[in-house]
Design a protein that fits this description.
Blueprint: E1 2-9, E2 16-23, E3 34-40, E4 45-48, H1 50-58, E5 62-63, H2 65-73, H3 76-82
Parallel strand pairs: 1-5
Antiparallel strand pairs: 1-2, 2-3, 3-4
Helix pairs in contact: 1-3
């Protein structure tokens, strides 16, 4: 099963995350199928590749809880339901 989840990078104590599509059996830092965006919790900055995220969601990818909250805040699910 494909999951949309966060992949951590950045220095110790200064995390940033990439939002990636990855097989659920792979570890967090494992090879991602596709990078879909960026999330910085310290500045609350978010950049999303919305068409790619919508495509993965339509194919059945399941977002993690935090990624679900990020996508809901960016109103991505309205685009999935509209199409």
């Amino acid at each position: 099963m494909v999951k949309l989840r966060l992949k951590r990078y950045g220095q110790k104590g200064q995390p940033s995350y990439r939002i990636v599509a990855i097989e659920s059996s792979n570890r967090r830092q494992g090879r991602a199928l596709e990078e879909l965006g960026y999330y910085n919790p310290r500045t609350d900055e978010t950049r999303l590749d919305v068409p790619a995220i919508v495509r993965w969601l339509k194919q059945g990818a399941q977002p993690s809880k935090i990624v679900h909250d990020i996508l809901r805040k960016a109103q991505v699910f309205e685009q999935v339901n509209a199409s």
